[in-house]
Amino acid sequence: MNSSLEVIFGLLGGLAVFIFGMNMMSDCLQKAAGERMKGILALLTKNPILGVIAGALTTAVLQSSSATTVMAIGFVSAGLMNLPQAISIILGANIGTTMTAQIIAFKLSDYIYIIIFIGFIVNFVTKSEKAKNIGQTIFAFGLLFLGIETMGSVMKPLASSPVFTDLIAKVADIPILGVAVGTFMTLVVQSSSATIAVLQNFAAQPGPDGVSSMLGLAGAIPILLGDNIGTTITALLACIGQSKDAKRTAVAHCIFNISGCLLFIWFVNPYAALIRYISPKGPEIEVISRQIANAHTFFNITMTLIWIPLIWLMVKIVTKIIPDGKTVVYSNSEPMYLDSKLIGQPTAALQLVAKEIVRCTELVEGNLIALISSLKKNDIAKISEVIENAEDTRSLYDKITEYLAELFASGGLTEEQATQTAGIMYVLSDVDRMGALCREIGLSMKDKEEKKYKYSGKAMDDLEESLQLIQKMFVQSADMMITGNTESVKKILKQKEQIMDLGIKMRKSHVQRVGKGKCSAKLTEPFNKIIHSVDRMGNCCINMADAVQGQVGLRYFLEYEED
């Protein structure tokens, strides 16, 4: 094979193995970390310092500042986080992403295959999901270094190429060209960690003297700055179609990295001298990988320390760039919280699902209240509104279940998350059924009004009483589902008995009225249908309460808010 093609294919193959290993390690770390991710996310509601720590820790687990940034954008868009909080997360994410470069700087060439073998054995032999995730993490860690080693081995012939060395000399001498190269590389690969790994490998190749780096630290720093700019593109893409604050979050990410580049580009040589001073000493090709990692870390820590007290200024800047427009009004049939970009981060995605389910229960409760009100007034317009709202709730339910199906299909859920999610889908079906039964009663009442049927005042009073009991039961069941508190179970069971007694009483009373000629026999079937729907509503509330007693509920996904 042509030597140039061999270098290109070797570089691309090594990069592919590196990115695959990094993504696999991210997925497995996330599963192994499990619910600890909720503990990290709990810091989001605290002060900016803790927000920075949360961003750094989350990125260390996800192995991607882009993933953390996309998560922050999703939370802001869903209204779970305000703009200053999101900016503090992004500051931390930029620190957290430097850990990958620090790991890469370790010389593990002699241990790559034993690491891969250990990871394979742990994954192959163990039965526990957590142990398997740890084994896969170790395996992916080995693959990451195998990719680095592959890239390093194919880059060695480049040192003897006069054309290539002349090109590198130009990049090293013109910092702005280095920034452009770094930005372009990250735009193509969509991962600053991957491009920095390539940079570390490339810089570790010896120049003509066999001791000095062919690029040098001063030549690597501008490319490093460009890598930081390139990674902001992912955030900008993620904010398309999102809320104003979500777009501002993405712009804040850009401002952070661009401002850092504009500041550091003027001091490349003094900065390189500082990094050499604080980094390990030795032949340049031996230590430059660590120097680049340190330059990356020091850059992001410095910029974070600059911006933390100026978060208020960042908020003003991004608000000026993206001014307030019309307030977004969400249709009841459309999700307010769900974000498909967070499918890859199940812990975060499930929190959004829990919020959407809470919203769905509130819509159903509102519709129950509207139904009771329409019974009192015989208001056909109000009844039509109840029917329409019930159809919106069904549409929202469909979208939530589709989102949950995507989460299952992604394969990113742990066993515990999958179990809880399956339980939540079961409970959600009862919430949806409550909405559907509101519609059925609404249709029966609408039919009554259109055909000029007339139920007796006593029948309507009994029906209203039973629906008020249903409303209480539903509120208590929904509260149980959210808080996990099972104290209301006895109340719900007692109320269900009351509804059954009322149902029997209503049927008897109706038959008596028909016998006395006070009510038309034609109304028996539609009236019994309404009573049956009320009875089924009671069953739905009981099902929800039973599920919570069986340790299924939204508390599992929402408990971080109570920390």
Would you spell out the secondary-structure blueprint of this structure?
Layout: H1 3-33, H2 36-42, H3 48-62, H4 65-77, H5 83-96, H6 98-104, H7 112-125, H8 129-155, H9 162-173, H10 175-189, H11 192-203, H12 217-230, H13 232-238, H14 244-264, H15 268-278, H16 284-307, H17 311-321, H18 346-377, H19 380-410, H20 415-450, H21 457-483, H22 489-515, H23 524-549, H24 555-558
Helix pairs in contact: 1-8, 2-3, 3-5, 4-5, 4-13, 4-14, 5-14, 5-16, 5-17, 6-11, 6-16, 7-8, 8-11, 9-10, 9-12, 10-12, 11-12, 11-16, 12-14, 12-15, 12-16, 13-14, 14-16, 14-17, 15-16, 18-19, 18-20, 18-21, 19-20, 20-23, 21-22, 21-23, 22-23
Attribute tags:
single chain; 563 residues; mainly alpha; 0% strand
Write the element-wise H/E pattern from the N-terminal end onward.
Answer: HHHHHHHHHHHHHHHHHHHHHHHH
> What is the makeup of the main sheet?
none
Helicity level, as a percent range? over 70%
Number of distinct helices: 24
Task: Tell me how many strands there are.
Answer: 0
- Distance from N terminus to C terminus (CA atoms, Å) equals 61 Å
Beta-strand content estimate: under 5%
Q: Mean pLDDT, nearest integer?
A: 81
Q: Whole-number radius of gyration?
A: 31 Å
- Give the class from helix and strand content and strand pairing: mainly alpha
What would you call the shape?
elongated
Detail the poorly predicted runs.
none
